[in-house]
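Observation: inputs received (chain + flavin mononucleotide).
Thought: call the complex predictor directly.
Action: predict_structure
Action Input:
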Amino acid sequence: MAKLMHLAGFMMASPVTHSHAMWRHPRSSTRFLEASYYQDVARAAERGFFDFVFFADVLAVPGRYGNDIRQAVEHGVQSVATLDPSYVALVMANATRHLGLGITRSTTYYAPYDIARAFATLDHLTQGRIAWNVVTSNADAEANNFGFRQHLAHGERYQRADEFLQATSKLWASWEPDALLLEKQGRFADADKVHVVDHQGEWFQTRGPLTVPASPQRRPAIMQAGSSSRGKDFAARWAEIVFEIDPTPEGRQAYYRDLKARTAAAGRDPNDIKIFPSFIPFVGETEAIAREKQAYHNALADPISGLITLSAHVDHDFSVYPLDESLRNVDVGGNTGLFDVARRISQQDNLTLRDLGKLYAQGVLLPQLVGTAEQIADQLEASFDNEEADGFIISAAYLPGTFDEFSDFVVPELQRRGRVRQQYTGTTLRDHLGLGPVEFNFN
Ligand SMILES: Cc1cc2nc3c(=O)[nH]c(=O)nc-3n(C[C@H](O)[C@H](O)[C@H](O)COP(=O)(O)O)c2cc1C
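Observation:
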């Protein structure tokens, strides 16, 4: 059977996701503090047979631009107002039956026992539909919120993250699947199948067992979005789902081939890691209508908003440079991979800092797909057949409308072409992704 595309939605528990124009768009609901806002999004994604929706998350209000939060708050950029996604995912699970739900949690600011317990609980309550987007966080603003003067260095963050995954894996494995007996006249559980783990590591010590019995997937599906070599090695060792942002087919293909090769080199089956490039679609009854939708959206994006978020993502203050000059060759921290893409585009298209800010506000450098349902299906097929992807992240221009349009117009076209599922056949997120049962690896 032909390989099917996996589909996923990008979310933040906020009125701004990748698009900074989104909350200003008249078609976007701003009811982001209400459960029904997310339930509408979840139903739209499930109507399109998406594998999952995942919530990105950052643990601080951006304040790198001008070293002050005021402009970020007034412009309403990414991460200024964001609910805790783990609770939001539960209200989405209650409104759906199949949709997978991914939640971001940082290995730099949480403890393994807390994370293992939370995700095992969520996996039970969602009947096996949960995933964890593993991030190491990359801004001093986040460190300051957890009592640290500055964030850990890149290499240390990943050393800590590797041990974090080892410790959580041991905790998730501490209850064997058939340990719980609930014999009203006999034993509650089989003590021979519940294990103390006694993890003693450089960063963590945790005794276990977990207080949560083995969950349907035994652990959350693991997501990640590394772009550095170290980040990609981490993904090759642990991840089952990887996101990327790259506007060019060549860049996406190179990333795909590199990560599959690293996964094989890490002793895993390359099919067990699914790579998802990200796009913002503008669907229209005609191409002209779609182009008008795109132009209307992009006109709402203001350059300063983009530069405020770029400054937070790459941990560098861009407020100190003249707006109408080209991007300076500066050393940045944070998400160096995304800055490489920003620099590449700026040089290639001869952008000023103001132009780059506007582009960043339009969707954090995500490529935009524009056209009729047939034309967008063509573009996705071309990318899929060019060894760039196992699936695609759909990010919104307005919510829930972008997901509604994609599910109601593009998905039926992809189904007609036999490129996406006609129905959900499994119950867990692992089933949707075609992943086998979990084999714990503590090394
Ligand atoms: C699509 C996508 C989503 C991401 N989501 C988050 C997030 O929710 N929180 C976060 O702190 N970092 C997020 N990141 C940043 C990555 O976790 C990672 O730090 C970044 O890609 C830099 O890669 P590196 O860690 O290999 O240097 C995301 C990156 C991408 C491409």
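Thought: report the result.
Final Answer: The radius of gyration is 22 Å. The chain has one domain: 6-283+367-433.
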